[in-house]
C-alpha cells in the first residue's frame, strides 16, 4: 500500500479529530506536517502525534516536497485561498465545511478544482458518512418512503459553547448561523431529495444573549425552504441546547416516515435515579459523529489510491452556501427569497 503523506492546517477541536484519525486510524496515511499560528497546537502535533514538520505559514507547508495531500480545518475565511494554493502545488485536498464565505470566490475555486480532475477534492459533509444517515438514504433510494414531501432538520449546539461564541462573534465573522451551522442540514436536504432549493424564508431570535443583535448574529434560527419539485424542508438551528448536542432529521414521504437521532443518545445506557429515568446524551459533535469523521477520511484515502472523486463535491459546497446566504438575506430583509443561480 502506497503511503499518503498528509499535512493539516488548523488544530482546534475538529482539527485534532482529523489529525488523530490521519495519524492513528487510517491505514496507509501518515500525518507528516501540521500548520498553526498557535504554538501549543504545534507542540501537540509534535509530541502527541509524532509530526515531523511543523509550520506557522500554510504557504511554506504546501511547498514541502514531502506531501501528497492536505487537510484544511482552518477558519472558514481562509478555505478558498488555501484550496487554490494546494491545487496549484498538485496536492489532493480535504476541506472542512464551508468551502468558503463568498459566492464569487467559491465559484472561482470550483473552477480550479474541476480543472484538476487528477487531484481528489473532498468536502467535509460528514453526515453523508454516518451509518444512520446512509441507512436512511438507502431507504429513500429504494422508494420505501415513497415520494418525499417534507424534510425536517434540527441542528442545535450545546449551550456550554454559547458564551465563547458571543465573544467570538464580536471580533470575527462566522458567516452567520445558517452558513456556520445549517450548512450540514442544507446538504442533507439536497442529498436525500436530489433536488435544489428554490425559495426560502427565515426567522431568528436572540433570547439568552440579546447582545448578538448588535453584531448581526443569531442564537436561534428557523427556516422554511421550497425545493424545485415543491418538496418542503424545515430547519431549526441554534446554539443553546441545555441537554447537549442535538442533531435530528425527519423524512416524511407518501409511504411512510423516519427519524434519525430523535434523541441525541450518548450510548445505550439508561440511568434510574432521583432524577427519574435518564438517558445520557452526546455533548459535542466529535462524539456524535466520531465514526462519520473516521469514515470520510477513509474515503478520502481510498479516492486518492483509486484515482476517483468522492460523492460529495465542490459544487455541493457551492450550492449549500448559496442557500445559506439566501436564508441570511431573508433574515436581514424579513422577506421571502428566491435562490438565484447563474
Automatic annotation (TrEMBL):
The keyword Oxidoreductase applies. Residues 4-120 form the Gfo/Idh/MocA-like oxidoreductase N-terminal domain. Keywords: Oxidoreductase. InterPro entries: Gfo/Idh/MocA-like_OxRdtase_N, GFO_IDH_MocA-like_dom, Myo_inos_IolG, NAD(P)-bd_dom_sf. Residues 133-259 form the GFO/IDH/MocA-like oxidoreductase domain. PROSITE patterns: PROKAR_LIPOPROTEIN. Transmembrane segments: none annotated. Belongs to the Gfo/Idh/MocA family. NCBIfam families: myo_inos_iolG (TIGR04380). This is Myo-inositol 2-dehydrogenase. It comes from Oceanobacillus caeni.
